[in-house]
Amino acid sequence: MEYTIGTPEGGTSGPIVVARSEDTPGCTASDYDGLPVDGAIVLVDRGSCPFGGKQAVAAQRGAVALIVANNEDGEEIPGGTLGETTDVKIPVISVTKAAGEQLRREPGARAEINLNAGVRIERTRNVIAQTKTGSTADVVMVGAHLDSVPEGPGINDNGSGVAAVLETALQLGSSPQVNNAVRFGFWGAEETGLLGSNDYLGSLDIEALRDIALYLNFDMVGSPNPGYFTYDGDQSATPDPRRGVPRVPEGSAGIERTLEGLSIVVTGSLTGYSRDEAKALMESECVAQVRQSTGEQGEITVGDPRSVYTWASGFLDGSQPSAQPVDTGDWAATVSSGGKPVGLLEVVHDKGHATCTPVFDDDLATDVDQMGEAHLVHDRNANAWYSLSGTTVTAMGEAATRRLAGPIELRDYGEILRERAGSKPKTSTAQGEERSTTGGWAIWGPVLAVVVVGVITVIITVRHERKVTAPLRQARNRADMAERADRLSRDESDTQGAAVRRGIPRAAIDLSLLGDGVEDDADATAGETLGDTIPESRVNLPRDPRA
Known about the structure:
Structural class: alpha/beta
CATH topology of the largest domain: Aminopeptidase
Number of strands: 19
Shape: elongated
CATH class of the largest domain: Alpha Beta
Low-confidence stretches: 263-272, 424-447, 457-462, 464-470, 492-547
CATH superfamily of the largest domain: Zn peptidases
Number of helices: 13
Radius of gyration: 33 Å
Number of domains: 3
């Protein structure tokens, strides 16, 4: 039981007195009426009122110690505390429900308690450093905690995070050429309740808090299976009823969208792995990332993996305009949360490791489920997905549909890609025209034919541009106009809300690279960034996001 006191040297002894089992066990002095509590060790059930209150009532009636028995099967009471401000009068311990039932069968039996416990106050410190250059109105802040836990691998948790941040600071130098100032925070007493970072926040006034554009946290970066995590910046997840509705700084949603596509690296050699092995990997390693990103606690299902193809090099450079895509050896599968499609998981193997990249696009997931036997093509240069059925290319998902308005022939789409890249089709010498030494039409006939074909090609290309590419450009123009209008709207909203700003970092996210540690994952990510401990504000995104 945390924040209790210990027994005197030699322990504390007395007869066991069992408090009445009722709706409020040990919560009021009347619960002990008629019981010989004075000088006794009291056994009381958990429930109804705080442990500190049970302790106060038992001490008032003369008890020398208190035993709190769990009211649920299983282990001892997890995380039991008397409260930091409770005036603890007697030693308090907790036992399992089974142990409590055993003691209950022996009322009056003499018991002895030896408890070495107490509260020790120690002073810790944070270390803060900042570049001499860059705007101090949009500070990019990175940090890591300095302490560890006795049962944990301190060299990783969090020696690795501290080393990474420190080396970054050393490489950057004191006066780097940056637009925004970079601040480095090394936190003390993180493992005991984020004490260091909370104290730092409390030392900043409203303007200083407002000047922090974002915070990046680094934890356990030495793990073999790191992951990149963000807090629920867009508030799409169901709030934890134990913590209420979180207060999220403005700008967090945009940063979450930016970082959603980052990969998590998982262990295991996947050279020549099968479809079944790929699915097993997705279900065992990749689903955790989906759950972390969506906040979904229910069932998450992974569809049947498909082979992932990519455009052939001859198709891209025009030397083989009808070349079919090539199999990459990688796999992709749709993922659903609560029965609804949320995106796609792609597993890529490289040098004995697998990288699982979730793409959170429900339209993409729906399109993949409905594509039938077509090839699934990933254009990694554009991070866009397509289906190829025969010679027909169809865009799938948000990124691809922004580039391609509708189904198109493979050769025509190749022309569009090369036009965007500014490249010309290559012609091999084997495919060149034979030169004739006979003169006349043997020479000029093919030349004239080439000219005619060229003219026709120009006409077709112009018509094709008007039919396919022009609508796409019009759509992009409309999207750009909408984006500019949205920005203006946000700026206006921010101006109107300036009077009610209370000041917090514009976005607090967690890039903890959590791995094989002893900490519980849910608790490990439940409060390691500044965003969990600060009030809501209405602050704009950084004027210039570049550090």
